[in-house]
Amino acid sequence: MATLTMRIDEPMEAELARLAEATHRTKSDLAREMLRRQLAIRRFQALRAQALPHAEAAGYLTDEDVFSSVS
Question: What range does the domain containing 43 cover?
Answer without folding.
Answer: 27-70
